[in-house]
Design goal:
- By secondary structure, the chain is mostly beta strands.
- It folds into two domains: 124 residues, Immunoglobulin-like (Sandwich); 123 residues, Immunoglobulin-like.
- 12% of the residues lie in helices and 46% in strands.
- The longest helix is centred in the N-terminal third of the chain and has 30 residues.
């Protein structure tokens, strides 16, 4: 009986080891498999994480198209067509699961989301004329991104959005002969701007409306004598009334040519003079993108 028990232990131990080895191999194999659902890591321009200026907010929603590699976005027939991806403050979740498949893809994103797109090459966009109050400024921003050569991975698809509009930041400074303090509650306007246009969602290029009429944008105050506005990219080839500052009942009007570049912030200084007819402007620099 003693020798039989010894032999039984010899056979049982290898069997247990074989079972453990097999289970471990299965676990390793499963852990190396690629998840079949596409996930996203979406970032605001210049930030690690809407157009409240610096970040996306909970309940924000971006639109996503997925095409085959080097294939153009179409209204329909894409691998994925205009799926909403929602932000809960921490993670981004598609309205419907997007499954990986064999092959390589291009991913296109835009913000804000529109559930009913009639054209992907001439998608209508515009900026508000009243950006000084409410959500006019924030709602004027339009963001776009393209991520090429994406294939199945356990890592999320990283989408770093970029501004497709232009932005101007105006700082009021004292010019020659200006006495006293600079106004804290000035009203600043940018004149002769087309505010409507279209964007090609394949390239993210914004084009101003050919037949749109020029309007005036009421700029938003940033405090510290600074004002800003989101502007549709465009070129003012002729010298026209451009920036107007109204302070204490006095209007300072500056005329100029200007090129509002896509995705660029234009920093300018506006020197107020004692004589309203002698206002001067100085372009302080350009920033590609902004926070």
């Amino acid at each position: 009986m003693k020798s039989m028990k010894y032999l039984l232990n010899i056979f049982v131990l290898p069997a247990i080891a074989l079972c453990l080895f097999g289970c471990q191999s299965d676990e390793e194999e499963n852990s190396s498999q690629v998840e079949d659902v596409m996930t996203f890591d979406i970032s605001f321009p210049g930030a690690a994480t809407r157009a409240t200026n610096t970040s996306f907010e909970p309940n924000d929603r971006v639109g996503v198209f997925v095409t085959g590699n080097k294939q153009a976005v179409e209204i329909a027939g894409n691998y994925v067509s205009n799926v909403a991806v929602d932000f809960n403050g921490t993670t981004w979740t598609p309205a419907i699961p997007i499954y990986w498949n064999n092959g390589t893809y291009d991913v296109f994103g835009y913000f804000p989301y529109n559930p009913s797109i009639q054209s992907v090459t001439d998608y209508p966009v515009g900026v508000a004329t009243e950006q000084n109050t409410g959500t006019g400024y924030a709602d004027s921003d339009f963001l776009w991104v393209k991520k090429a050569n994406v294939s199945a991975s356990n890592e999320p698809v990283s989408l770093q959005f970029g501004h497709r509009m232009s932005r101007i930041v105006i700082q009021l400074v004292k010019g020659d002969g200006y006495e006293g303090e600079l106004p804290e509650d000035a009203e600043v306007y940018i004149h002769n701007l087309v505010t409507e246009g279209t964007v090609d969602l394949n390239a993210g290029v914004v084009t101003r409306g050919k037949y749109a009429t020029a309007k005036t944008i009421h700029a938003r105050s940033l405090g510290n004598h600074c004002y800003t506005a989101i502007v549709l990219p465009q070129r003012l080839d002729n010298r026209v009334p451009l920036v107007e500052v109204i302070s204490y009942g006095v209007s300072y009007l500056y005329e100029s040519r200007f090129i509002f570049k896509q995705g660029v912030q234009h920093n300018v200084q506006l020197a107020l003079s004692q004589n309203p007819d002698e206002i001067k402007i100085k372009v302080g620099g350009e920033i590609v993108g902004w926070d």
